[in-house]
């Protein structure tokens, strides 16, 4: 299968400080890839680099298009959605207004599934109940649901999500995991930054570990869990 996203020799810089060092990674259609690593390893930087939000060198190829040098809005228009850690919802707008702002028709006629407002409400019924409420009064979990649902209404092929379960209750987390699986089943690939291995394990097809600015592991759960020294070196504190 051809790659949806191919990153080669990606280096990123904040002023003089380099975070990623010639990183390589690939994502195929409809797969959930968990991006793991210690705090400060550069996981958020990797997502920002894909979205054109940090200074980079190297290649980022999405389908048949290079993303290098494109502004973030263009990258989003090509079909990559990004849900940052702070969720970036419009606090003063209602839930439904936030969702409607996310609506974009699919880019490709062959898209298997077109996401509509009703799908967002079906995936997260609480958003329907709270559709007329200002986003700022939602709970943290509801805000995360809103951010995820809104990103989907842009009909992306690839969803980049940064630590969505951080600080949320187990019932909410369970709903988010179900959401990711539903989205994948309808053909969307997901690159998920997730700190908790036990959660990533439940949904990810493949695991990447970021260390020293590059990918130090790329494999399945079985390989990851068998390799204790790898986990000790790059994940456990
Ligand atoms: N805007 C910035 N300016 C300068 N340095 C930054 C900036 N953002 C991040 N960094 C630095 O880059 C490194 C990687 O940060 P990044 O946010 O990508 O890590 P992370 O793996 O997402 O970890 P965490 O989410 O736990 O902070 C860290 O050393 C961080 O301090
Ligand atoms: Mg981060």
TrEMBL record:
Gene3D superfamilies: P-loop containing nucleotide triphosphate hydrolases (3.40.50.300). One of its GO terms (biological process) is L-amino acid transport. InterPro entries: AAA+_ATPase, ABC_transporter-like_ATP-bd, ABC_transporter-like_CS, BCAA_Transport_ATP-bd_LivF, P-loop_NTPase. It comes from the Bacteria. Residues 5-237 form the ABC transporter domain. It holds the Pfam family ABC_tran. Keywords: Amino-acid transport, ATP-binding, Cell membrane, Membrane, Nucleotide-binding, Transport. One of its GO terms (molecular function) is branched-chain amino acid transmembrane transporter activity. The keyword ATP-binding applies. CDD domains: ABC_TM1139_LivF_branched. The keyword Protein biosynthesis does not apply. Belongs to the ABC transporter superfamily. This is ABC transporter ATP-binding protein. It comes from Undibacterium baiyunense.
């Amino acid at each position: 299968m051809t790659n949806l996203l191919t990153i080669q020799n990606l280096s990123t810089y904040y002023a003089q400080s380099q975070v990623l060092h010639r990183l390589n990674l690939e994502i195929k259609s409809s797969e959930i890839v968990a991006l793991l690593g210690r705090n400060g390893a550069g996981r958020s930087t990797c997502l920002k680099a894909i979205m054109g939000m940090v200074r980079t060198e190297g290649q980022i190829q999405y389908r048949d298009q290079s993303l290098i040098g494109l502004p973030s809005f263009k990258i989003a228009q090509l079909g990559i959605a990004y849900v940052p850690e702070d969720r970036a919802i419009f606090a003063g707008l209602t839930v439904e207004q936030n969702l409607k702002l996310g609506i974009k028709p699919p880019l490709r006629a062959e898209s298997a599934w077109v996401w509509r407002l009703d799908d967002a409400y079906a995936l997260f019924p609480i958003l329907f109940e709270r559709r007329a409420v200002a986003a700022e009064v939602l709970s943290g979990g509801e805000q995360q649901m809103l951010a995820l649902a809104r990103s989907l209404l842009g009909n992306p092929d690839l969803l980049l999500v940064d630590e969505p379960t951080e600080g949320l209750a187990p019932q909410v987390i369970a709903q988010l995991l179900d959401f990711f699986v539903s989205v994948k089943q309808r053909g969307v690939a997901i690159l998920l930054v997730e700190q908790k291995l036990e959660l990533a394990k439940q949904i990810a097809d493949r695991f990447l570990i970021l260390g020293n600015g590059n990918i130090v592991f790329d494999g399945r759960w079985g390989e990851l869990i068998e390799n204790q020294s790898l986990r000790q070196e790059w994940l456990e504190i």
